Amino acid sequence: MKTPVTVYGPLRSATGDKTVTLEWSGGTVADAIAAVVDAYPRAEPQLYDGDELRASVRVTVDGERAGLEERVPDGASLSIVPAVQGGAGENG
């Protein structure tokens, strides 16, 4: 399955482009995010904290906010907004 994925913020440096085509076997939003990391390993720190997806990562399917367990229909497009990092008092 080929899915267009639009990324924002620091994910652009990981993918090299604002919109990329993800070739994957299909499945849920969580599966799609894992496939993005497989294709673009530099995206992992923006999306995951250890084995868990960062709580502030937002994903839309065809412009609608989507939960991790929602299926991604064939022909749908995804957008991924990564976690915002930093802030006052954070020591990294």
Briefly characterize the structure:
The protein has 92 residues and is α+β, with helices and mostly antiparallel strands. It is built from three helices and nine strands; from the N terminus they run E-H-E-E-H-H-E-E-E-E-E-E. InterPro entries: Beta-grasp_dom_sf, Mopterin_synth/thiamin_S_b, SAMP1_3, Sulfur_Carrier/Prot_Modifier, ThiS/MoaD-like.
Catalogue the unreliable spans. Answer: none
The proportion of residues in beta strands is 25-35%
Number of strands: 9
Morphology? globular
Name the average pLDDT. Answer: 91
Series of H and E elements: EHEEHHEEEEEE
Largest sheet: 5 strands, mixed
Q: Count of helical segments?
A: 3
Helicity, as a percent range:
10-25%
CATH class: Alpha Beta
The radius of gyration computed from the alpha-carbon positions, rounded to a whole number of angstroms, is 13 Å
CATH superfamily: Beta-grasp domain
SS-based class? alpha+beta
Strand order of the largest sheet: 2-1-9-6-7
- CATH third-level topology: Ubiquitin-like (UB roll)
Question: What is the number of domains?
Answer: 1
Named CATH architecture: Roll
Distance between the termini: 38 Å
Pfam families: ThiS (PF02597)
Protein name: Sulfur carrier protein ThiS
Organism: Natrinema versiforme JCM 10478
